[in-house]
Write a structure and sequence with these properties.
The complex is a heterotrimer. Chain A contains 10 helices and 26 strands. Chain A has helices at residues 10-22, 44-48, 65-68, 128-137, 151-162, 183-195, 291-306, 376-381, 389-396, 401-409, and strands spanning 2-6, 27-32, 71-75, 78-83, 86-90, 95-97, 100-103, 107-109, 122-124, 143-147, 166-170, 199-201, 206-212, 215-220, 226-228, 230-233, 237-239, 255-256, 268-270, 275-278, 285-286, 318-323, 326-332, 341-346, 351-358, 361-368. Chain B has 2 domains: 1-52 and 117-148, Alpha-Beta Plaits (2-Layer Sandwich); 55-112, Alpha-Beta Plaits (2-Layer Sandwich). Helices cover 23% and strands 20% of the residues of chain B. Chain B has 6 helices and 8 strands; from the N terminus they run βαββαββαββαβαα. In chain B, the strands form 4 sheets. Chain B has a two-stranded antiparallel sheet with strand order 1-8. A two-stranded antiparallel sheet of chain B has the order 2-3. The longest helix of chain B is centred in the N-terminal third of the chain and has 11 residues, at 17-27. In chain C, strand 16 (434-435) and strand 17 form a beta hairpin. Chain C is globular, with a radius of gyration of 22 Å. Chain C starts with 5 loop residues before the first strand and ends with a helix. Classes of the chains: A alpha/beta, B alpha+beta, C alpha+beta. Chains in contact: A-B, A-C, B-C. Chains A and B meet through helix 1, helix 7, strand 22, strand 23 and helix 8 of A and strand 2, helix 2, helix 3 and helix 6 of B.
Chain lengths: 410, 159, 615
């Protein structure tokens, strides 16, 4: 059996390993667009701070890991896919035939329609190459503008502060991390950033990036332009599926997959950031560009490709974010489904917890300033049985999430 | 034969000596907030429940780790955090549905039960044998793991 | 090492919190906890100060072993001038609060002055704030603890608070931590209430370090084994709790019954450990639902109880249909034998209320017993009690009055005075079973002679925890002495007093002394604490502390005249049991005790003693 995997991120790597574990004779090829050592984007902020070397970002630490498993890594970008006959063509012309294909090509940063983003000194923070450029420009005392206060923007905030730069964050929405945090939590994160000396402009749009006197200048729709030595653009991502054009594979924002990870072509599967699959606990199809979903997808897609039928229970949205020391997390339907909710706020100490219920099931949560046994929230959301007596207790004091989980399960 | 922690809440008095021993073994100080085992107290029920990682075969933490910092100790079956590799991204702390891997802010890494290399300190100090270290087959681990969680049936199939 | 060397000073008048280094010269001479805080207090306040004035101070203090893995090392004390007694007060509590305080990096907190408005102190490691407690004022200790945890979003916060009784001036209010552990005696909660301080909430994550870790772990392991191998700490207390004593002391003929008119209670078995464990036919459950340990305790004497759902106390009150701290021996005696009540669930309920509203069940039960005797004699009438029939044995009245006392309503206001003031008010001062204003506990000095001298000389007023000679006289620890005999008791009492002061000051529980001698404690202290520590040095510290406390009381105006037992114990002989025909021989023991102590016949430490102890 010939398996080809497009992409060597977490989904691709886990899929390749799962294929090998379950099929010792399989012919497995993984196409990497970013060199021979598959690495983790999650680790890039820590590379930025200098905490780890480049090798610290590797998904697998042993250089011979994939060779030892008999997984071939091909370095290159996919130009197109042919579904009959089944083959993948790379930019350089190399052709790989497959019996089963997994697309785990991930996502790329969006470039918002702002004039001047092609100037030198404007970067995304997505690849190791990007981070090398950023490190070079972000000298102590330099002016840095961060466009977008989303997940990536926030996670590199500390790296920037550690480098001693003057930081301005521009966010078009009315709060920080709008896709992961509600107004209350977003405002608390903003307050935290202001305390750390960051200038935060919410409800503000960058209109252009120009050059003036050897520096960049970011014009905004409200107030004065902001001078910058470096502009980092982090305004969201889109899935990498351009090479599937003309294949007829069903797409929405990503590749539509069924509960067995199969696309509309029965030999092509998809996993991770480029796949649109079931959301946990619902009949909606969603894009969750998160690490746990990527690895879950990768593993289960591989099992299905081998012929071990595994029905996906859906992706639970989960994020954990460290914004210059303030740790926040979101789970599931954190913006609610119209059921009860419970909230605990301690503004002064930057602690916040909000739980969202559907009848007496927990369906989502937001937390700030809390790390102890936070995973129990996932456990509670994904537990099949109702909360029983703990519903009322959690309504009275949402901080008892770990107690509730242990109390219900032991 | 691999061994597992076997916890019997009915015998626990809530004294927290397991937590003290754990924090001293792992951090060199007596500090309940640094312990990888925690005794949950349900005051109104008069119940004490020692709670820590079951070294589950799903290994959610290990699966979620983006930098391969959590590895399996083949001798003990424990999932071990490698402090030098962990970047502190905390993804494992939300991925583990048991909440038994936690971020230690002052060290910038996560921490979890590592079975003390096969000779758990919590077991040695427990005055009532509420925590014992026994052959893995005896512990009813399956019971603990199957608590009504219906997610990710695939991982169970692959386990 | 072992000490954090850090003192937090909270001026409630000014609303300020400042840190200062611990006086290590004093730590060397007074060790920690009870001893060290007494040194601070006696240096800082006028002994004649009104306990409830802003000039009194209140110290919350841990010991050097507090927060370590030594067995029972979670203790803290509150040291102040007692509201009930006007004497030096040191009330010791277990649970987990003391450990949390130590982990916040504090050896002690000194509260001075008085706040204009209700406040609570919130400590999260170095984040220390005095916060508005107007929302908490008027709440029970249970509700206060829950509310603070919820408001700060952290279930791991430990709270020590006062209930309504402490706010409203009940003389024997206590400070309750962890729902059912209390710094119980002498009215330390009353002092806290007078300062408008509702609670202290702590979250500490700093950790506790010791000098020589390997040696400490070895010493701790050996000492724990001593506890395991001992019949009392290894079997009796773990299996039955302190209630193991109920039948034992009753058979000894030393269970003060119906305000000490008798020394045996015919229904003792109904309120004993055995009764708590008995499975009821009605619902197939027992009063006892679990065994609970304090921080790092290998003994686990704590009991958790639940009242039968159909019992009159809880049948319409679901909020009490849950488990909570069960009866300890002293509480079961005071609420039961002293009042002649044999309804176990009623005692359990009254005990719940004592914890919930924060008042001492010993003083409450004993005061109620005195009131019952006066009611039966007609000194107190239903006019005074609001219609309540205060007859011995009346369980309903016990529960009603527990609630009224907890909220300082109706006749509960009178009961909140304590027996000394109550009996004086109703013209029968001799019926108050107290010394220095504090009610004595569950051992009748006629049947256990050493306890008479213990009560009379206890620096905080009548108390068993200052020299628990019951260990020797009843249990044979460290060697058996005859409880009916007074010979040798002055020396025994003195030795117990000094050793107890040292154990208290280390941060461990006095119950360890059923099994440990000082030679078991010394290696633990020496491995944990900087400096060199020997048994001789620790015993000298114990004696120094005792004398320091005595000096304070003398300066406060106490004299040998106050080292007295109630007349009843001296004149009315025991009617039944082994002590039948006996009274307390205090008058024989006391002069010898003074002499052994190196005090004048008036009970004042001589200059020679003061110099010898380097006071």
């Amino acid at each position: 059996m010939k398996y080809v995997i497009i992409g060597a991120g977490p989904a691709g790597v886990v899929a390749a390993e799962t294929l090998r574990k379950n099929d010792l004779s399989a012919d497995i090829t993984m196409i990497s667009g970013e060199g021979p050592y598959p690495h983790s984007r999650m680790a890039i902020p820590y590379f930025l701070t200098g905490r780890i070397e480049e090798s610290g970002t590797w998904l697998r630490k042993n250089e011979d890991h994939f060779e030892n498993l008999g997984i071939t890594i091909v370095d290159g970008c996919v130009s197109h896919v042919d579904t009959a006959p089944r083959k993948v063509t790379l930019d350089e012309g190399q052709v790989l035939e497959y019996d089963k294909l997994l697309i785990a090509s991930g996502a790329s940063p969006l470039r918002p329609p702002v004039p001047g983003l092609d100037r030198p000194g404007v970067y995304h923070c997505w690849t190791l190459e990007d981070s090398r450029n950023i490190v070079q420009r972000a000298a102590p005392g330099s002016d840095v503008v961060l466009m977008g206060a989303g997940f990536i923007g926030c996670i590199i905030l500390e790296a920037m502060l550690e480098r001693g730069v003057n930081l301005t964050v521009i966010e078009a929405e009315d709060r920080m991390v709008p896709r992961m945090m509600n107004q209350t939590a977003g405002d608390m994160i903003k307050k935290w950033c202001l305390k750390k000396g960051v200038t935060v402009l919410t409800s503000t749009r960058a209109t252009s990036v120009d050059e003036a006197g050897g520096k960049l200048s970011v014009s905004v729709d409200k107030g004065d332009a902001v001078a910058a030595d470096l502009v980092v653009v982090a305004t969201g991502v889109k899935s990498n599926t351009g090479f599937l054009e003309d294949t007829g594979i069903k797409m929405e924002e990503g590749i539509l997959i069924d509960d067995n990870f199969c696309s509309s072509d029965s030999n092509i599967y998809a996993a991770g950031d480029c796949a649109k699959g079931r959301e946990y606990g619902s009949d909606s199809w969603v894009m969750h560009a998160i690490q746990p979903t990527a690895t879950e997808h990768g593993r289960q897609a591989a099992l299905n490709m081998i012929g071990v039928p595994v029905t996906y229970q859906g992706s639970l949205s989960m994020n954990v974010l460290d914004t210059a020391g303030l740790i926040s997390a979101s789970f599931g339907k954190w913006d609610g489904v119209g059921g009860d909710h419970a909230e605990s706020i301690d503004q002064d100490n930057f602690r916040y917890l909000r739980l969202e219920f559907d009848d007496d099931h927990l369906v989502g949560a937001l937390s700030l300033g809390r790390t102890d046994r936070i995973g129990c929230i996932r456990g509670l959301i994904q537990r099949a049985k109702p909360l029983g007596v703990w519903k009322a207790r959690l309504m009275a004091n949402p901080n008892l999430v770990a107690e509730a989980f242990v109390g219900l399960s032991q | 034969m691999q061994k597992s922690l076997n916890i019997n809440p009915d015998k626990c008095t809530g004294c927290a000596q397991c937590e003290l021993a754990c924090s001293y073994e792992s951090e060199g100080v007596f500090n309940l907030s640094k312990s990888r085992i925690k005794v949950f107290k349900f005051h109104d029920e008069g119940r004490f429940v020692p709670y820590t990682c079951t070294q589950c075969s799903e290994a959610w933490c290990q699966q979620a780790c983006p930098v391969d910092a959590i590895t399996l100790d083949l001798a003990t079956g424990a999932k071990i955090v490698n402090d030098a590799t962990c970047v502190g991204c905390k993804v494992c702390t939300i991925a583990c549905p048991f909440g038994t891997i936690n971020y230690i802010a002052d060290k910038g890494v996560v921490a979890k039960c590592d079975l003390c290399g096969g000779d758990p300190e919590c077991v040695k100090v427990c005055p009532t044998n509420a925590i014992t270290f026994v052959d893995a087959n005896w512990t009813g681990l399956d019971k603990m793991r199957n608590w009504a969680m219906k997610t990710d049936s695939g991982s169970q199939a692959s386990a | 090492m072992a000490w954090t060397k850090n003192v937090l000073r909270v001026n409630l008048t000014e609303g300020t919190c400042t840190n200062e280094p611990l006086n290590m010269d004093w730590a060397e001479k007074y060790l920690g906890q009870r001893g060290l805080a007494t040194k601070y207090l006696t240096e800082e306040i006028d002994p004649k100060v009104d306990p409830l004035s802003p000039d009194n101070k209140m110290i919350m203090v841990t010991g050097p072993l507090t927060g370590t893995c030594a067995s029972t090392a979670g203790r803290y004390s509150i040291v102040t001038k007692g509201a009930l007694t006007g004497a030096i007060a040191c009330s010791n509590s277990g649970g987990f609060f003391g450990n949390e305080l130590k982990n916040a990096g504090l050896d002690m907190i000194i509260f001075e002055g008085s706040s204009k408005k209700p406040v609570y102190l919130y400590i999260e490691d170095d984040n220390v704030q005095l916060l508005d407690a107007s929302e908490l004022w008027g709440r029970s200790t249970w509700n206060t603890e829950e509310t603070i945890k919820a408001n700060h979003g952290d279930p791991m916060i430990r709270v020590a608070s006062i209930g309504i009784s402490g706010e409203k001036g009940c003389k024997y209010a206590c400070v309750v931590n962890d729902m059912d552990r209390a710094a119980g005696r002498s009215g330390v909660g009353t002092v806290m209430g007078s300062k408008n301080l509702k609670a202290v909430a702590v979250r500490g994550t700093k950790g506790v370090a010791v000098k020589d870790g390997a040696r400490f772990l070895k010493a701790v392991a050996e000492a724990k084994q001593v506890l395991v191998d001992n019949a009392v700490t290894g079997q009796g207390l773990p299996a039955f709790g302190t209630q193991v004593l109920m039948n034992v002391i009753n058979e000894t003929g030393a269970l003060p019954t119906r305000n000490s008119r008798e020394v045996q209670f015919s229904s003792a078995n109904d309120i004993s450990a055995e009764a708590m464990a008995e499975v009821r036919a009605s619902d197939n459950k027992s009063n006892l639902v679990a065994t609970a340990a304090c921080f790092s305790c290998t003994i686990a004497c704590g009991r958790v109880s639940e009242i039968e759902r159909t019992h009159f106390t809880v049948k319409d009150r679901p909020e009490y249909q849950k488990a909570s701290g069960g009866l300890e021996y002293e509480a079961a005696w005071a609420l039961g034998a002293a009042t002649g009540i044999k309804d176990l669930d009623a005692l359990t309920f009254a005990n719940f209320i004592c914890n919930e509203q924060g008042f001492d069940p010993i003083s409450f039960g004993s005061t109620l017993a005195a009131a019952m005797e006066m009611f039966e004699a007609g000194d107190i009438t239903t006019k005074d009690t609001g219609g309540l029939e205060l007859t011995f044995g009346n369980a309903e009245v016990l529960c009603t009055l527990a609630e009224l006392t907890g909220k300082a309503e109706g006749f509960g206001v009178d009961l909140g005075l304590g027996s000394k003031l109550l009996c004086a008010k109703y013209g029968k001062p001799e019926l108050a079973m107290q010394v220095k204003g504090q009610e004595f506990p569950a051992y009748d000095p006629r049947g256990i002679q050493g306890m008479g001298l213990t009560y009379a000389t206890s620096n905080r007023g009548a108390c068993h925890l200052r020299s628990y000679t019951v260990a020797s006289e009843v249990l044979g620890i460290p060697e058996k002495t005859d409880p009916l005999e007074s010979d040798g008791k002055p020396g025994l009492v003195m030795a117990f007093q000094d050793a107890t002061a040292a154990f208290d000051s280390a941060g461990v529980c006095i119950f360890t002394t059923f099994a440990w001698t000082m030679d078991d404690l010394t290696p633990q202290i020496d491995a944990a604490c900087e400096g060199d520590w020997s048994t001789e040095k620790l015993l000298e510290i114990g004696e120094r502390i005792w004398n320091l406390e005595r000096q304070f009381n003398n300066a406060a105006g106490f004299t040998a005249e106050d080292d007295k037992l109630p007349q009843r114990l001296m004149k009315d002989a025991a009617k039944t049991g082994p002590a039948k025909g006996l009274t307390s021989k205090l008058e024989v023991m006391l002069p010898e005790y003074y002499q052994l102590r190196g005090w004048t016949p008036d009970g004042v430490p001589t200059n020679e003693t003061i110099q010898r102890l380097n006071l």
